[in-house]
Amino acid sequence: MQIGVEQKHDHEKLSIETLGWSSFFEDQLTSEDAGYDRLRIATIHRSRMSAESPSGPVKLLLPAKTNTTDFAVGDWILVSPDDQMLIRRLERQSLLQRNTVGGRAPQFIAANVDTLFIVTSCNDDFNPARLERYLALANEAGTNPVIVLTKADQVTDAARYQQEAAQLQRGLDVVTLNAKTQDAVVALKPWCAQGQTVALVGSSGVGKSTLLNTLAGKRAEDAQLTGGIREDDAKGRHTTTSRSLHAIKGGGWLIDTPGMRTLHVSDVSAGLDVLFAEITELAPRCRFRDCIHSHEPGCAVQAAVSAGALDPTRLDRWRKLQDENRVNAAPTSSGARGRKR
Known about the structure:
Strand content: 15-25%
Number of strands: 14
Mean pLDDT: 87
Distance between the termini: 32 Å
């Protein structure tokens, strides 16, 4: 199936570097690629995709049997300049993905992201255990995580949320803001410079769409729809239903994602090690190499808990995520003799 072509030239032409192009992608090109355009995927739908070019948005022509689920918003691709036919995708510098219940393959969240804005609000949505899942995801992908606390103007003590969030991982940047004001642009400016790509993740109703509208400076007629939260449980309503790439103030790019209330961990062992560095560093001091830090004699981790140097709830959450990661990452067998994995 082939998709029609349309290209717009209604805004100033950008440099390829402004779109996020770097030597990592340049080094993948060969002499045979010289005549192709370099574009970045902006939207993905079931049977069609669009991309961002230095001259503006482009509707892509897809070869027959193209599976759009093999692509992620933020991917760099090579395209024929004559008809905008997709030629191939370049290798990714980073990839955020998650496993879904019953899904056969991971679901791509965003590609080639420099910074992941993990958005939560200063209300009942604030959940340290959920934030740790997002942090493990970002760490594993090699993407810099930043926790963004929204709706700070609606509470009397936003500092306690910031302090609790900062304790989740060493060196973690935490920003508290009101997503509706221009102060949010200033607060997030260090990660939104020209050529940089950020992605927004978080639950519905925490202010992701509002933050996107502010960072992108969208006019009212172009703004993303926003939804409030239910008063009984502070949980939000879904407003963003697909992933998309947007230009933002400062010259960067932002990938918006639908709200995710459930995030399963799988194949994030390295990410968990970074997240729980205080436990990772204590583990080699345990008497037994296979210590699970529960009841074994000579456990350095349990000794730290007893001494008050390690929060026992933190250890409980580490153990839960380790167990979940181990189960989800384990190969499964099927077939008469269990030969398939």
